[in-house]
């Protein structure tokens, strides 16, 4: 394998994972960030993102002399053969991706890039951005490549090192091949294509995943009404290889830093070319309705939400992260607070104060005096709580498990009434 000199601009979870993993594959990597404090902390091996194995790779890469951190993109790219742009592309006005960070960095590095360098867009960017970046760089000798990431938060390092596939797109086939070769050691299928197609893969994949989840959440609602159990239904569906078992769990809605942003951006991309992408729109609407449905279930458990005391278990958008961005758990909590419920919340990774609720450092404190408890994030530790103690602390007896995560027997033994999603028999369960 060729060892390449690589720059990574942006040390968020995508950039830092990319930089640390490429260094672990043997490349020489310089990572840049605008945040001087962050750079200093990374040099000292301090990683603020909750991501298994990432801190170890950051320390190991620096000890081996293959990984360095600098402040400012222009200092990182000066000797780079390949530059990865791993910058935030948040949802901007009207749902479109905000590209200002990508544009600013393109301006910053255009005069400093070595002759013949390759610039790789790793951030999720609308179709056509590679061409736009090439225009901004204004360098005939510099090729632009799209190499979307498919990393899940909480397993980003594992996903990077064991990818299902590598997608590389460029209007310069040689550049695409050179970028693809960086990952040869991973042994994954590498799909080379044009830049627009590579940009589209990411949106098409994430919208499909979101659609799958909205579908499952809608099926779960039907299951409740016809007396079926969604866990059995999805297991039965999932053995069909065309469907697969993964991404079939109902929940309080999907969230996080990618799916909400990418579904909205896809609607905008379609609108821009005159297509009404109603399937993706319905996917988004179903997700918003899912949160309302959870609120409705809590309301039914306590009668009226105004003044009700609700214990909230979990705030992160999924277990294994400390990320609250577009967290459905947080959205549900905010809706409950908006309706006058008094919320006491516990999440093993969230300790900072939040508007509209009291955040406490123990699940037992969260449920003290609660009229009902709602579980919103599937943290493993919730399964092994002392439910008898929980029951004795609560003033009500209903637990709404929006992830179908808890052991029904443990709760029943504790005298609690457990409600899940998509698996309640209507006859048995008229109250909720
Ligand atoms: C996602 C994509 O998986 C990844 O490929 C992409 O690059 C970035 O976006 P991530 O945002 O880290 O990754 O989270 P993911 O694990 O995909 O979960 C997204 C949301 O769906 C979470 O809110 C999660 O709780 C929810 N989810 C996921 C379910 O409700 N049920 C499931 O079965 C799976």
Architecture overview:
The chain has 2 domains: 5-193, Rossmann fold; 283-429, NAD(P)-binding Rossmann-like Domain (Rossmann fold), CATH 3.40.50.720. Helix 1 (13-24) crosses helix 3 and helix 9 crosses helix 11 (259-272). It is α/β, with parallel strands linked by helices. An 8-stranded mixed β-sheet has the order 3-2-1-4-5-6-7-8, with helices on both faces. A 6-stranded parallel β-sheet has the order 11-10-9-12-13-14. It has helices spanning 13-24, 36-43, 54-63, 73-77, 100-109, 129-137, 156-161, 173-181, 195-226, 230-238, 259-272, 278-302, 328-338, 363-367, 387-393, 408-413; strands spanning 5-9, 28-33, 67-71, 82-85, 118-121, 143-146, 166-170, 190-193, 309-313, 342-346, 358-360, 372-375, 398-401, 417-419. The radius of gyration is 24 Å and the shape is globular. The model is unreliable at 425-432 (pLDDT under 50).
